[in-house]
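FORM 12-B: Structure-to-Sequence Request
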């Protein structure tokens, strides 16, 4: 088979390891950087020489445009352009989650952060809030504000930024990361971006203690968002999971078995179901981003 990676970083550990697995089995692996040129992305598509599958790791506007063009020519793209684009918009993520009954913090959308200073129908200003860029991207805004002064300072720095406001979820200080590849679940925990124990003394939860309901929630999220390769960030609120983010094709670094799962997904024919072992059992491994899994710390 011919497998093409749509990325500017083919040496990413997950992609490089999956590529080596595929090449070792005699498959041809190439890569294409959608942002390498300035001309129309249609020039990057040769309808007579399409790959059997394209793995859409890049999330830029040109990458999405290229993916849509490939799909229009009948190519298989994982994840689809539509699903990837959906997960770049935090307002749309919240709307889909609410419609599907997935537990998620209450969310308000603003065309510009400056509107939070005088907008009606917003949460009480005395409550802690998470303020996030509406459109997920590198270097986007993710911050906690505890009152009007903090909100005013943030609005001064990001006045025209489209944002979502979310109720702050009091949590243990640990962010549960569940990554899914075609129904196979990998898991780890990292210090939460907001609310993490500053001195690292609070014990990390053990991946082997992750309730089955949390795994089912992660798998259900994939169905709701139309994703094959994705991540779900969960916080523990009074013993129950709350979804705080859904990511299309995240890095999934350091997870044993993840490259092989991605290679198997690439080789799967359209309409072919997951292999029997893809039952959603959790697999935990140390993560390069400072994760803790299976009760051990990554140093």
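FORM 12-B RESPONSE
SEQUENCE OUT:
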């Amino acid at each position: 088979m011919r497998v093409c990676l749509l990325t500017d970083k083919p040496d990413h550990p997950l992609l490089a390891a999956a590529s080596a697995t595929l090449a070792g089995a005699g498959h041809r692996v190439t890569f294409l950087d959608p942002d390498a040129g300035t001309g129309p992305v249609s020039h990057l598509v040769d309808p007579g020489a399409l790959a059997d599958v394209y793995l859409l790791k890049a999330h830029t506007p040109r990458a999405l445009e290229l993916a849509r063009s490939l799909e229009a020519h009948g190519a298989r793209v994982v994840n689809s352009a539509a699903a990837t684009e959906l997960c770049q918009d935090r307002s749309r993520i919240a709307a889909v989650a609410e419609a599907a009954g997935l537990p998620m913090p209450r969310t308000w959308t603003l065309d510009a952060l400056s509107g939070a200073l005088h907008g009606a129908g917003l949460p009480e200003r005395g409550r802690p809030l998470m303020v996030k860029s509406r459109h997920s991207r590198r270097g986007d805004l993710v911050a906690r504000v505890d009152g009007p002064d903090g909100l005013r300072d943030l609005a001064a720095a990001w006045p025209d930024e489209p944002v979502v406001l979310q109720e702050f979820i009091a949590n243990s200080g640990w962010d549960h990361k569940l990554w899914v590849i075609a129904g196979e679940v990998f898991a780890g925990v990292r210090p939460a971006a907001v609310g993490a124990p500053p001195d690292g003394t609070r014990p990390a939860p053990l991946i082997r203690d992750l309730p089955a309901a949390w795994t089912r929630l992660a798998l259900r999220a994939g169905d709701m968002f139309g994703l094959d390769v994705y991540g779900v960030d969960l916080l523990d609120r009074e013993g129950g999971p709350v979804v705080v983010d859904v990511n299309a094709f995240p890095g999934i670094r350091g997870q044993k078995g993840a490259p092989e799962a991605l290679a198997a997904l690439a080789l799967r024919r359209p309409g072919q179901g997951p292999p029997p072992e893809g039952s959603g059992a959790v697999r935990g491994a140390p993560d390069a981003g400072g994760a803790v899994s299976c009760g051990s710390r990554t140093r």
